[in-house]
Design goal:
The complex is a heteropentamer of chains A (about 325), B (about 300), C (about 325), D (about 525) and E (about 270).
Chain A lengths: L11 E12 L9 E13 L4 E5 L6 H8 L7 E6 L2 E2 L6 H7 E4 L13 H11 L5 H14 L16 H13 L5 E5 L7 H18 L2 E6 L2 H7 L2 E6 L2 E7 H6 L4 H8 L39 H5 L5 E4 L2 E3 L14
Parallel strand pairs in A: 3-8, 3-9, 6-7, 7-8
Antiparallel strand pairs in A: 1-2, 1-4, 4-5, 9-10, 10-12, 11-12
Chain D lengths: L1 H14 L19 E3 L19 H10 L4 E4 L4 E4 L2 E7 L4 E6 L13 H11 L9 H4 L5 H5 L9 E5 L2 E5 L6 H5 L9 H4 L14 E7 L3 E6 L13 E5 L4 H9 L5 E3 L2 H8 L2 H4 L2 E14 L9 H10 L2 H8 L4 E3 L22 H10 L7 E6 L7 H13 L3 E6 L2 H10 L4 E7 L4 H5 L19 H12 L3 H18 L2 E13 L3 E2 L17 E2 L7
Helix pairs in contact in D: 11-13, 17-18
Chain E lengths: L4 H23 L32 H37 L1 H16 L2 H12 L3 H9 L4 H15 L2 H8 L4 H37 L11 H7 L9 H28 L8
Helix pairs in contact in E: 1-2, 1-10, 2-3, 2-5, 2-6, 2-8, 2-10, 3-6, 4-5, 6-8, 7-8, 8-9, 8-10, 9-10
The chains are: A alpha/beta (about 325), B mainly alpha (about 300), C alpha/beta (about 325), D alpha+beta (about 525), E mainly alpha (about 270).
Chain lengths: ~325, ~300, ~325, ~525, ~270
């Protein structure tokens, strides 16, 4: 196993986490079904490190993020943040000071009825900064850090463009000086010409403040650009994880390969045979065996019969595929 | 489907029990007693009779004993005996049920037949003078006290024009039904017009209507093939809620037009403190609401595939 | 222009205005492009740049507060922008078809998808409903929907996003139109499903000789799909190129900035992690377009002339046009 | 026959005051057949079709049509008259009465009425555990209370002498006509009462038999051919359309959809101002007195001067004129005009604010006081009157806080004495003695002494009037008692009601019944050929 | 240019009604209670009595002016109570979900199942006629729509990023409900409240008709109209003016509500 990821060293360590939701059910309407949103996930992030989390809709990455934030209860397993188990050794305020989040939609993630100042100052006051002058200073400083002018603090969100709003979102996430920031698709809702500004800003702030990032995205270009390590999720499980170079240059899991092949970019032409077929099944009734088998271009009978385990193919490179050894070739030219 | 209907019907039971409890508690603290309510005017009251009545009717028992008796009664579908007529309340309500139902149905029919097309016409020309005019007419219907509207209708259609009788049940036919039905139907008509307009406007802006247009459909087909049904689905909730509560709203109109419905029985019973009759009436009115809304749910299940297959 | 060279669609100097309480604003200005039979052309730009309303104007589906303010739209040489409604309807669906972004809301939730396809045959081929429903199953087969006879009876909410978009494609291609307009057809879909849908669309259109106008904000998707790409910025076309050259030698500063700002997969492995090139400033809204070259406030190459004079679209080479005073 | 003489004397004494106006002598002969539609104006439904169970005026309309009892109120003479009884003779100082019964009275089921029916009906009224409203009229019979308490099987004071003779012994001296004219003592057929259909399809001895009842809308009766009065009734049917809403009734009457309509003050004026409608209005002075009752137990109402001051402070005349629209008579004291004992020579309290102020000052309240006035919303004896009085009392420094309640609650509060003052309407007839007893100190508040009035002189006058055998002396004593009340002013004497009923021109034979205007004598009503009703 | 006619007309009428409600006592010529002069009873409109006089000889103009106060108090206060109850229940139910949501849903359905007029009638019979009773009766019985709408709004807002963000920042539930959810659900709630106010004024009139309305000393439009219904054939001005006051005010509120809906709640026009 990953010998670097010792608990005492990791800022975040998720240990065999599972989150199930009952769906339906009630006094008159029969037994509820279990939605296995996250089903046995382990991962860790060291201080200053960026972990990219890749996956498509319904793969459980948002639920994973929420359970790290202590907002969703784990059915199984635990989340350890900075040495403390979330939910047991921490309250909401402790977690808030350690981990924060940047949201996808800069339009929906700012309260339209609050000024920027309130958006930034309220959390400070909630966390015990009572000196008005200090609050004002920290708000101004934070705004400067994200590339806004302090005099813009008294404006309302609708007076800003999408990119500026995302800067405010980042400022809000950083105002409590957290150690870990979960970035949930931080640029996918932004105009293409604005994305680079935000990506650069996030990287600068990481360097400046020594942040760790959990970078959730389906955009492999962004993930490659920003991550030290990458985990690929499919139907509630991690199917492949490793350093960014291994994942993108020598992906071992057919799903990872399919994701790369699906990128509409002249660079990926000629990877047609790696593409996945069909669509993501419902997490309510995942297929038997390897959950990717119905879509996998390389599936064999064994894949339909038994589920593979996540196992190391290389130092720090873990894959959950029966045929992982056969895909040792680099994917792109 | 049968299972769904049974389930929905079963879900009504706890609601009815809750309603029964609520009205029982409410009317156990009402001031004035049946015995004194029996007097028209004057105080020529025989207290010996009052005392005997109270004993006979079990009014001197403690509250929980009375509630126990009441629930036991209800469980056998017995609504009790009226203080006033000494008849079973169920019989009294039974006699009023049909007139109430036809009045409610006629009012709702009026509301739908007038209100829905009105809303449609307005929505097809949003912002136009036609739209504004129709909506002001509709909203005006919502803004008149029912009894005043009723008196005006009587004055105009009975006294001045002589088209309809001013009051009464007659043989329960359309001749006597028309005026009270209009008086009762005007406000749901206005609400329906408004809801229909909003629903049609919503649907007209929906993506699938744009798809329909991109298919090369003319506006008539767009409306008939794609807008109508979707809009009606949105309007159905309003129809259900309005229809369901109309039996209760009938109180004023029934009293004004001397229509022998449950509403007028209820008001009479309230003033004469005929508590079993009051409780029975409210229970039946609520049951009607629940039945209508359950029916709407079932109707949804039939016409809206999104619900049908969930 | 002779019949043989006559483009299938030509849009000439198209103007679309937006009317608000504050007045009329040019949402699209002087847009011209053409598509030959069977050709694939992309229209790329950021949200609000006018690409979608350009498509709607071709369909004749602009609605208040948007309105056509000038220019010509020709289909096989025939001007269609002022056609009476009934004639325009005859073109819609039959000769020009369109696919929309949200496959969930673009389908009527209360009708079986088979019926929604069948409508096309009833409308344009005079088929009876029974025949049309049968043809609808065929159409579903062609878009590779498994068990098409059963799926035809399904309602939109029972289908996945990808399946719905296949249904939309089946509707659009039902009458074998000459031109398919695809407005962000895959944006709402998952990455792996996206490429399947795009491949399907390309394959079916190629087989029918149907031209595609692909509209997207995704430069990669458009260049991947189309032979030729028009880049729009703030209501104007700023560059038109063969898609090969968009990534390799973009001419307009905006296109150049876009290409440089994208973190493309494989770049880090090849060149290491470099700071991405930013395009400064914000995308202007329709009501606040700047004078002169609309990109000038964000442009690194701007000079005085850019602030006042609208640059003309100039041809650089075969199929290569750029609207910039300082291109290259 | 002694009793009748007494009554006749009283009747003669008061005949001059009758306002009961018979329709002008009819030149035409009554026509047989036709329908009359008499509106039921007081509630949205008939409460109970069993005459023993309901004392409500509206139900009485139907009872008068379907049922009969030993006596009936003779509106023309202003006294009870024999109906099912053909003769009544008193013995033992007026405590034992022998009734001879009609031999030609049939129930609607065809059976002849006998003495057994009278005995059974009165016994039923006293059945223990049932709250029969009519019980109060029978309770004076010997053994009735015992039966009521369940101590006896039968009322011991009732004896069937033969099939058509009944002897009844009372616990005190009574005039049975005042008891048994009430419809709540109707004679009922046992075999029908015991049927389950009884409550919905009553059977009686009256001129009309039950035909149809659409609860809440109308009740229809049709002619009973074996009715005991030869040649009567005239009508084929009597219908009772229920119309509690006055505004709707007005339109319906003008629209000729109903044949009679009770008029409130507003419509009384309106109809009198209409040349056509004015011709057909029947008026009668009813035996109801409207008054503000003061709670003698509450300060400062314990002081006679305060009570008198209130009577002086209010311009009663103008309220009766303008608000009651003269559909009432200014009250002089407690007994109304049509009841023996009323003294036409007395004049009402004069409107004299100065005197009122003086009286208040005398009573130690020169600056007035404030009290809470409980009232219902009744238009004739409720809130509108209070609203008119408030400014008048304010002029002498009396402030009023109103407490508006429903009638049912008002009665409750009055009987419990939970009020400072309330305005209401009391039935004050037809028996003057019983009416005045409501101020006797032996009468509890729960019976009818709601003001809680106690005065030995007054008690003495009443006791004497109750025992004397001399009608003239009795009348004199009643007048004195009434005059005593005038001076003591336990109430603000407001008015005596005048009932007014509009009827369509084709309706004939209506009678002004002072005990209750809507209680008509259906056998005498007939309609001429112009009636549109079929 | 689109003219929001309903907003303009509705707003105008509402402002007018409110102005009359506030300044009524100054606009009135006479005291509405004490200046009964039976010698002037039932005079038609004239120079002296603009709207005529009623049966007690009181100036109808003055009573309509004063009546505004009562009628609007009934409309505003009881609707405020409704809004407070409905919003509190709806927002908490939508935000917390679970058994509380089920409970509130049940309660809301219960309230809907007993028609509000019937419910109000019962409460009025229990509390007795009067302004306070009326405020309670109408304030406790018309919150179900508000509750449903605010619940739906809370559900919608709850999934918005800024609510998530507040949770991530460690905000407590009540703080989130007050600072994040409530301000963003107010639009539709204001619309419902505006429309409901009209309904409440009408309900007061209906209760007056049934004999259980607000009662003087001070007049309400509903009780004036109800009292005057008998004279509609003989002295129509008695009912005309309070009737018009109710009609115009409720019409104004309805139009205003419709207009506000277009502004405040454009995406949910057809909900309800």
């Amino acid at each position: 196993m990953d010998k670097h990821a010792r608990a005492d060293q990791a800022l975040l360590s998720v240990e065999d986490l599972a989150v199930y939701f009952p769906i339906g059910g009630g006094v008159f309407s029969g037994k509820p079904q279990m939605l296995r949103a996250v089903d046995g996930v382990s991962l860790s992030i060291k201080p200053g490190e960026s972990l990219g989390l890749v996956g498509e809709s319904g793969c459980g990455k948002s639920t994973l993020a929420l359970s790290i934030l202590g907002l969703v209860n784990a059915t199984k397993g635990r989340v350890v943040l900075d040495g403390k188990t979330v939910g047991e050794d921490t309250d909401r305020l402790d977690v808030a000071r350690t981990v924060q989040m940047v949201f996808q939609d800069p339009y929906a993630s700012l309260n339209p009825r609050q000024t920027v100042r309130r958006t930034l100052a309220d959390p400070l006051r909630l966390h015990g900064v009572s000196n008005a002058g200090e609050v004002a200073d920290r708000v101004a400083e934070m705004l400067r850090q994200v590339g806004l002018r302090p005099d813009q603090a008294d404006l309302y969100p609708h007076e800003f463009s999408g990119g500026q709003r995302q800067r405010i979102g980042i400022a809000r996430a950083l105002i409590l000086k957290p150690k870990l920031v979960i970035c949930d698709e931080p640029v996918s809702a932004l105009d293409v010409s604005i994305r680079a500004q935000i990506i650069n800003l996030l990287l600068e702030l990481q360097a400046e403040m020594g942040l760790s990032y959990l970078m959730i995205s389906h955009d492999l270009g962004v993930v490659e650009h920003m991550s030290d390590r990458v985990a690929v999720m499919y139907l509630g499980r991690i199917v492949e994880t490793g350093g960014w170079r291994e994942i993108f240059e020598q992906p071992r899991h057919p799903y990872t390969r399919a994701l790369i092949a699906a990128i509409p970019d002249p660079l990926t032409r000629g990877l047609a045979r790696e593409k996945a077929r069909g669509e993501i099944p419902s997490p309510l009734n995942p297929p038997p065996g390897c959950t990717f088998n119905p879509r996998c271009p390389h599936a064999i009978d064994h894949c339909r019969a038994a589920a593979p385990m996540l196992s190391a193919v290389d130092d720090g490179h873990l894959v959950s595929c029966w045929r992982a050894d056969e895909f040792a070739t680099p994917i792109s030219a | 489907m049968a299972g769904f209907i049974i389930r929905r019907l079963l879900q009504m039971v706890p609601m009815l029990v809750a309603i029964a409890l609520l009205i029982f508690v409410l009317f156990s603290v009402i001031p004035g007693s049946f015995a004194t309510g029996q007097q028209d005017e004057g105080l020529g009251l025989d207290m010996a009779v009052v005392t005997r009545m109270r004993q006979e009717l079990g009014l001197d028992d403690p509250l929980h004993v009375r509630f126990g008796k009441y629930v036991a009664q209800l469980a056998t579908l017995d609504l009790g005996i009226s203080f006033r007529s000494r008849q079973p309340v169920a019989d009294m309500i039974g006699a009023r049920m049909w007139p109430s139902l036809i009045l409610t149905a006629a009012a709702m029919g009026f509301a739908i037949v007038i209100g829905v097309p009105l809303g449609f016409v307005a929505a097809l020309r949003p912002g136009s003078l036609v739209d504004l005019g129709l909506m002001i007419v509709a909203v005006s219907g919502l803004s008149l006290p029912k009894f005043w509207l009723g008196i005006l209708l009587m004055y105009l259609f009975a006294l001045t024009l002589g088209w309809f009788p001013s009051f009464g049940y007659g043989d329960g036919g359309l001749y006597h039904l028309t005026l009270p039905a209009i008086a009762l139907g005007v406000s749901p008509m206005a609400l329906l017009a408004r809801t229909t307009r909003a629903a049609v406007l919503d649907i007209m802006n929906a993506d699938f209507v744009r798809t329909a247009r991109s298919k090369g459909m003319n506006e008539y087909r767009v409306v008939v093939w794609h807008v109508l049904r979707n809009a009606l689905v949105l309007v159905l909730t309003t129809i259900g809620l309005q229809f369901g509560s109309l039996l209760g709203q009938g109180v004023v109109v029934e009293k004004l037009f001397a229509w022998p419905g449950i509403g007028s029985l209820l008001v009479d019973s309230v003033f004469q403190r005929d508590i079993p009759a009051v409780q029975g009436c409210i229970l039946v009115i609520s049951l009607f609401f629940l039945v209508i809304n359950t029916s709407v749910d079932i109707a949804y299940k039939l016409i809206d595939p999104r619900i049908r297959y969930n | 222009m002779s019949g043989a060279n006559m483009p299938l669609l030509s849009v000439e100097d198209l103007h679309i205005s937006l009317t608000t309480d504050a007045g009329r604003f040019p949402a699209v200005e002087g847009v011209s492009f053409s598509i030959a039979r069977g050709e694939t052309v992309g229209l790329v730009g950021e949200s609000g740049c006018g690409k979608s309303i350009t498509a709607l104007s071709i369909m004749g589906l602009l609605r208040d507060p948007l309105g056509l303010a000038g220019g010509k739209i020709k289909l096989s040489g025939q001007e269609i922008q002022n056609l009476p409604a009934s004639q325009l309807r005859a073109l819609r669906g039959k000769r020009i078809a369109m696919i929309f972004q949200e496959p969930m809301t673009a389908l009527n939730p209360l009708k079986a998808v088979g019926t929604q396809i069948a409508e096309m045959f009833v409308l344009h081929q005079g088929a009876s409903w029974r025949e049309a429903e049968a043809k609808a199953v065929d159409a579903l087969t062609q878009v590779k929907v498994p068990a098409p006879a059963q799926r035809a009876k399904d309602f939109p909410h029972q289908l996945s996003g990808g399946m719905r978009q296949r249904v939309m494609i089946a509707i659009a291609l039902a009458c074998e139109p000459d031109l398919l307009i695809a407005d962000e057809p895959t944006t709402a879909l998952d990455v792996t499903v996206q490429s399947e849908i795009v491949d399907l669309m390309k394959e079916l259109c190629a087989a029918r000789g149907t031209a595609i106008l692909m509209i997207s904000h995704d430069l990669g998707l458009v260049t991947d799909t189309c032979k030729r790409v028009c880049v729009m910025y703030a209501g104007r076309i700023v560059e038109q190129q063969d898609s090969e050259r968009i990534f390799n030698s973009p001419q307009h500063p905006y296109t150049q900035g876009l290409v440089a700002s994208l973190p493309r997969l494989g770049m880090r492995a090849r060149h290491g992690r470099r700071r991405l090139t930013e395009i400064a400033g914000v995308v202007p809204g329709i009501t606040s377009y700047p004078a002169g070259c609309r990109f000038h406030p964000r442009c690194t190459r701007r000079t005085e002339i850019c602030e006042t004079v609208v640059p003309e679209l100039t041809a650089l080479a075969e199929g290569s046009l750029v609207r910039c005073h300082h291109h290259g | 026959m002694k009793r009748l003489t007494l009554l006749s004397t009283i009747a003669v004494a008061t005949a001059g005051l009758f306002v009961a106006v018979m329709p002008p002598a009819e030149a035409q002969t009554p026509r047989k057949g036709g329908v009359v539609r008499i509106t039921a104006p007081y509630a949205s439904s008939f409460g109970n079709l069993d005459p023993h169970m309901s004392g409500r005026s509206q139900d009485g309309q139907v009872h008068m049509t379907i049922h009969r009892t030993l006596y009936i109120w003779d509106s023309a003479k202003g006294e009870p008259a024999l109906e099912l009884a053909t003769a009544a003779t008193a013995s033992a100082g007026g405590t034992v009465w022998t009734f001879k019964l009609r031999q030609d009275a049939f129930f609607h089921n065809g059976r002849k009425m006998t003495a057994d029916d009278v005995v059974w009906s009165f016994n039923r009224l006293m059945e223990s555990g049932k709250g029969f409203v009519g019980a109060r009229w029978v309770r004076l019979i010997k053994g009735a209370v015992e039966k009521e308490k369940g101590e006896a099987q039968e009322i011991s004071g009732m004896k069937k002498v033969d099939d058509f003779t009944v002897e009844i012994s009372f616990t005190q001296k009574v005039e049975p006509g005042f008891l048994f004219y009430n419809m709540t003592t109707s004679i009922l057929p046992k075999e029908e009462v015991e049927k389950p259909t009884w409550a919905i399809a009553p059977v009686g001895l009256g001129p009309f038999k039950f035909k149809e009842h659409i609860s809440g809308s109308r009740l229809v009766t049709e002619r009973f051919d074996k009715f005991y009065k030869p040649g009567l009734p005239y009508l084929d049917r009597v219908e009772f359309p229920i119309m509690a809403e006055a505004s709707a009734r007005d339109i319906a009457f003008r629209n000729k959809e109903v044949d009679t309509s009770i008029l409130g003050p507003v419509q009384y004026v309106a109809y009198n101002n209409d040349a056509n409608l004015k011709k057909n209005i029947l008026e009668v002075a009813e035996v109801f007195t409207r008054a503000m009752v003061m709670n003698i137990g509450v300060k400062p109402f314990d002081d006679k001067r305060v009570r008198q001051a209130i009577n002086h402070a209010i311009n009663t005349k103008i309220i009766v004129e303008r608000l009651a629209r003269n559909k009432a008579y200014v009250a002089t004291s407690w007994l109304p005009i049509t009841v023996p004992g009323y003294d036409k020579d007395m004049s009402p309290y004069a409107y004299d604010p100065a005197k009122a102020k003086a009286l208040l000052a005398e009573a130690g309240l020169p600056n007035g006081f404030e009290f809470e006035w409980t009232t219902s919303q009744n238009e004739s004896w409720g809130l509108p009157i209070v609203e008119a009085v408030i400014p008048m009392l304010a002029q002498v420094g009396i402030k009023v806080k109103t407490k508006v309640v429903e009638v049912a609650v008002l009665t409750d509060l009055a009987l419990k004495g939970e009020f400072q003052a309330y305005i209401g309407s009391s039935q004050t007839g037809p028996d003057p003695l019983q009416t005045l007893r409501c101020f006797h100190s032996a009468t509890p508040r729960t019976s009818c002494n709601v003001s809680g009035y106690k005065n030995a002189d007054f008690d003495k006058l009443l006791d004497e009037a109750g025992t004397t055998d001399d009608p003239a002396k009795k009348l004199d004593l009643l007048k004195k008692a009434n005059a005593h009340l005038y001076d003591a002013a336990p109430v603000w004497f407001f008015n005596y009601n005048k009932a007014a009923m509009a009827y369509q021109p084709w309706v004939h034979g209506l009678l002004g019944n002072p005990t209750e205007m809507v209680h008509q004598y259906p056998e005498y009503i007939w309609v001429d050929a112009t009636s549109p009703a079929k | 240019m689109k003219i929001r006619a309903n907003l303009a007309i509705g707003g105008g009428l509402t402002v007018l009604a409110l102005a009359v409600g506030i300044f009524g006592p100054w606009l009135a010529h006479t005291d509405p209670i004490m200046d009964a002069n039976l010698m002037n009873a039932e005079l038609p409109p004239s120079r002296e009595f603009w709207f005529g006089t009623d049966q007690q000889g009181r100036d109808i103009w003055s009573r309509v002016m004063y009546g505004a106060q009562i009628s609007l108090t009934v409309g505003v206060v009881s609707q405020l109570i409704n809004t407070a109850i409905g919003t509190a229940l709806g927002v908490t139910a939508g935000y917390w979900g679970g058994w509380w949501d089920d409970f509130v849903n049940g309660l809301t359905n219960l309230m809907l199942a007993i028609p509000s007029l019937i419910f109000a009638l019962a409460i009025m019979a229990i509390l007795g006629p009067g302004l306070t009773s009326l405020l309670i009766a109408l304030g406790l019985t018309n919150w179900s729509y508000t509750c449903r709408i605010s619940r739906a709004q809370a559900l919608a807002v709850k999934s918005q990023g800024y609510v998530q963000a507040a949770r991530v920042l460690g905000y407590g539930d009540f703080r989130i409900m007050f600072t994040q959810i409530l301000p963003n659900t107010l639009g539709p709630i204001i619309v419902i409240a505006t429309l409901g106010m009209g309904g409440t004024i009408l309900a007061e009139a209906a209760l007056s008709f049934l004999g259980l309305g607000v009662r003087p000393p001070s007049p309400s439009w509903g009780s004036m109209l109800s009292d005057a219904r008998e004279t509609i054939t003989t002295a129509p001005w008695l009912s005309l003016f309070p009737g018009m006051a109710i009609f115009l005010t409720v019409l104004g509120l309805n139009l205003l509500g419709d207009g506000l809906r277009d502004i405040l709640d454009p995406q949910s026009r057809s909900r309800r």
